[in-house]
Every structure is written in C-alpha cells, then in structure tokens.
Amino acid sequence: MTLDPSALDTVLTWVAGILMVAGSALSLSAAVGLLRFPDLITRMHAATKPQVLGSLLLLTAVGLQLRSWALVPLALVAWIFQLLTVPVSAHMVGRAGYRTKHLKDARLSVDELEDVVARLEREHAARRPGSGGADDGGADGERAGAPMLREDGS
Predict the structure, then answer these.
(1) Are residue 87 and residue 137 in the same domain, yes or no?
(2) In 10 A of CB 113, how many CB atoms?
(3) Segment holding 132, helix H or strand E
(4) Using CA atoms, how far apart are residues 69 and 66, in angstroms rounded to an integer?
C-alpha cells in the first residue's frame, strides 16, 4: 500500500500542526511557570525544562511544514545550541540566586551548597583585617566581607 502525494502532504501537514500546538503549549507553560511559581529556583525550573522540548517540537514542525532537507542541519544546530546553553544559564542564575539569598530554604529538599558556602565564609572571616589572619582581605580585588565563591563551588 502506497500513499499518494496529496495524502502524504495532508498527513505531514497535520503532524506539523500537532507538533506546533504541542511546542507552543510547552512554551506557554514555561511562561506561566515564570509568572506563577513563588521563588527563583522553581521559576528557573519552569523556564528551562519545557522550553527546550518546546523548541524541539516547534523546530521539527517547521521542518515538516517546509519539507526542505536544507533546513535540517540549521534546525539541528539551533536545537543543540538550546540544549547546551539553557541548562548552563539556568545553573548560573541559580548559583547567583543562591549567593544573594533569593530562594526559600524551606523549598529545598537537599542543599548541597550550604556546607561549601559556610566553609568559605569561615575561611574568609579568618582572613579579614583585625581578625588575626595574615591576609588583608582585599589583596585579590574582593570586597571586604564579601563571600568568596569560585565557579567550581570552592
């Protein structure tokens, strides 16, 4: 059994339409999550998880609708870029929010950074001027009293 070109065209149009609706719904759920969730961590989760899948569905729908093999590498590169950059940016926003205390501790089930931050603050307090430490606290360009956290968490 073979499909004639008009039937195949109709099937691909319907599949592209369904993918567009699903991708748009996921993107809308990300936007609603940004508005409705109470704190930074949950908003960040809502913005990243459905957005990546929604963009994949929308890019697939556009590829099916345009029916051009030349579009496949471009859509693939766009989706891989999203897949790689969205988690990294969410991680950076989450770390910045944690450092500036823009989160609700009661909502965290596990706080893996608490011990690291406490240790670094103790080390930094020991090096402050007048605390008996050998360092003057500002030799490396840091503000006096600011917690010193590197990107690797140490």
Answers:
(1) no
(2) 16
(3) none
(4) 9
Comparing CA positions, the residue from 109, 105, 112 lying closest to residue 38 is: 105
Contact criterion met (CB below 8 Å) for 84 and 52: no
Tokens of 6: 């008009």
pTM: 0.66
In CATH, what number is assigned to the domain containing residue 21?
1.10.287
Sequence-separated (6 or more) residues with CB below 8 Å from residue 47: 30, 33, 34, 90
Give yes or no for a contact between 147 and 117, defined as CB atoms under 8 angstroms apart: yes
Q: Which structural domain, as residue segments, surrounds residue 138?
A: 112-154
For residue 107, the 8-state DSSP code is: G
Q: Which of 97, 115, 92 is nearest to 107 (CA)?
A: 97
pLDDT in tens, 42-74: 888 888 888 889 999 999 999 999 988 888 899
- Are residues 91 and 15 part of one domain? yes
Q: Are residues 137 and 91 in the same domain?
A: no
Q: Are residues 100 and 117 in the same domain?
A: no
